[in-house]
Specification:
This is Rhodanese-like domain-containing protein. The protein is largely without helices or strands. 0% of the residues lie in helices and 0% in strands. The model has no long low-confidence stretch (mean pLDDT 59).
Length: 25
């Protein structure tokens, strides 16, 4: 997967569709 929505995104928090959820509030 190639995406750069956030500098530090946990791969476990990124679904297969590529949608990144902000779990680091």
């Amino acid at each position: 997967m190639n995406f750069a929505p956030l500098p530090s995104v946990d791969a476990a928090a990124v679904p297969s569709d590529g949608f990144v959820l902000d779990v680091r509030e």
